Amino acid sequence: MNNDFFSGLIASISERGRTLLRRAPWSGNEPHSPDDMAALCEGLLSGRGEASATALAREVLEAYRGLDDAGRTAFFETLSRKFGPDRDKVEKAIEVWRAGVGGAGGDLHFASEPLRQELFRRLNRAPGATHELVTMREHLLDLRKDRKDLGTVDRDLEHLLSSWFNRGFLVLRKIDWSTPAMVLEKVIRYEAVHRIHDWDDLRRRIDPIDRRCYAFFHPALNDEPLIFVEVALTETIPGAIAPLLAEDRQPVPIERARTAVFYSISNCQRGLAGISFGNFLIKQVVEELRRDLPKLDTFVTLSPVPGFMSWIKRGTDVPISDEDRAVLAELDRPNWFEDEEISSKLRAVLEPLAAHYFLKAKNPRGKPVDSVARFHLGNGARLERINWLGDTSDKGLGESAGIMVNYLYHLDDIEKNHEAYANDDEVVASGAVKKLLKSEGRRLLDLRLS
Fold first, then answer.
1. Of the candidates 213, 119, 145, the residue with the CA atom closest to the CA atom of residue 173
2. Which residues are catalytic?
3. How far apart are CA 89 and CA 395, in angstroms?
4. How far is CA 312 from the centre of its chain?
5. Is 180 exposed, middle or buried (0-12, 13-18, 19+ CB in 10 A)?
6. How far apart are CA 124 and CA 127, in angstroms?
7. What are the backbone dihedrals phi and psi of residue 171, each rounded to the nearest 5 degrees, phi first?
8. Whose C-alpha in 52, 104, 191, 347 is 20 to 30 A from the C-alpha of 312?
9. Are 156 and 80 in contact (CB under 8 A)?
10. Distances (CA, A) of 426 to 366, 377, 407
11. Mind listing the pLDDT tens digit of every residue in the chain (450 residues)?
């Protein structure tokens, strides 16, 4: 028996439950107001039979789909106000715990759980509900930008999604030209790093002998990839993306490939933000590649630097002189990277700044300001190389003045690097990157002395 059988069974139960609900007082009107939604949710929590509960969960989700932005805001406000912990239960559990009764700690834990967590669990009984709840969190994340008071609701939903999307439930699949078209269409749509222009472009990325693509799937979202990675097999570590994606490139003979390059990692479900699959994905893909191609000995990324230029423009804690800012004005010149003299001047300023950006610039929590760096360093990679003009697309020039970086996953050092980053906020970097940082210091000293 497969997922389709169980999905059909749940749908059948839901339909039978709807018949029962037609006799219920809350099923006569379409619920749109916060009070109507609250009544539906309270009914779902009241402990009904399986069929009616499944049908009622479906009613709540259908009602939610009909809400506009204001209605969603009101719904989440209701969840925040009315579906928190039961104060009476919590106070009684605290009294028992203070009395030193055995097992009271566990009772206190369960008593303090917000009602909305159980509500989300019961909503998940409806057919297709997991995907609906992921979408619900996507809406919640959008609202949270201006509504910090909804953070408790988001935290509860994220907590449950983290459990439901545990690594043990995820399935790794290889994506190739034989993969169903509906999945391939989603790979095209979700690609977030280097846009896939059309079907021919997609085929060039997944079909040649020196290309691989892998994705994580979850049984509840059968044909919806959660995250996928595109891999190029090369002879050496590349420093630019264009040759890897060129239409007329010659595939690398597989017997000569020694390097696996992770050049694009795309998260597909924004509602699962904060639930990290990427570290598991990279490690499992490395194992898959080593098993199929034992001659591979180098595993690296070719990564964008999405926040570099915005960091420079903000000017906060950026070690840059007025003379260097004058040089940076050349970035406004069309196709500046094609002028060798201008490019050389900009490189002398931007490469040391990039080293400072990765090694010294920190966010309020003491971590690197760059989100891609936090991801790979947290997974145990080493910042291996800063690549000048690695990406001369409009997006690459706008975000990072064309700079890309390689993060090296040296299998013997991953755990050590991870511990250094997690415990001491250390950015593990190669000597070449550290040398660029030293050249920045010498340059600024020379400018002050001149």
1. 213
2. 303, 376
3. 54
4. 25
5. exposed
6. 8
7. -120, 130
8. 191
9. no
10. 10, 9, 15
11. 455 544 454 445 445 445 544 444 444 445 467 788 888 999 999 866 677 889 899 999 999 998 999 999 999 999 999 999 888 888 888 888 888 777 767 788 888 889 999 999 999 999 999 999 999 999 999 998 889 899 999 999 999 999 999 888 999 999 999 999 999 999 999 999 999 999 999 999 999 999 999 999 999 998 999 999 999 999 999 999 999 999 999 999 999 999 999 999 999 999 999 888 877 889 899 999 999 999 999 999 999 999 999 999 998 788 888 899 999 999 999 999 999 999 999 999 999 999 999 999 999 999 999 999 999 999 999 999 999 999 999 999 999 999 999 999 998 999 999 999 999 999 999 999 999 987 765 555 454 444
**Strand pairing report for 227-234 and 211-217:** antiparallel
DSSP letters for 240-306: -SHHHH-TTPPPPPGGG--EEEEEEEEE--GGGTT---HHHHHHHHHHHHHHH-TT--EEEE-B--T
Beta bridge partners of 300: 261, 408
Q: How do strand 259-267 and strand 211-217 relate by DSSP bridges?
A: unpaired
Residue with tokens 């050349």: 330
pTM of the model: 0.85
Secondary element (H or E) of residue 65 = helix 50-65
Backbone angles phi, psi at 410, to 5 degrees: -85, 115
Cβ neighbors of 44 (< 8 A, separation 6 or more) are 53, 56, 57, 60, 119, 122, 123
Tell me the C-alpha distance between 177 and 181, whole Å.
9
Strand 211-217 and strand 171-174: the pairing is antiparallel
Q: How far apart are the first and last CA of the chain?
A: 78
Q: Domains in the chain, start-ordered, CATH in brackets?
A: 3-164 (1.20.140.90), 168-301 (3.40.630.180), 308-449 (3.40.630.150)
Which DSSP category does 194 fall into? S
> From CA 92, how far away is CA 85, in angstroms rounded?
12
Q: Which residue has the tokens 């490189």?
A: 347
C-alpha 324/C-alpha 39 separation (Å) is: 63
What the block records as the tokens of 333 is: 């010149």
Give the H/E segment covering residue 228. Answer: strand 227-234
Q: Could you identify the residue written with the tokens 């800063």?
A: 386
Q: What is the pLDDT of residues 380-406, one digit of tens each?
A: 999 999 999 999 999 999 999 999 999
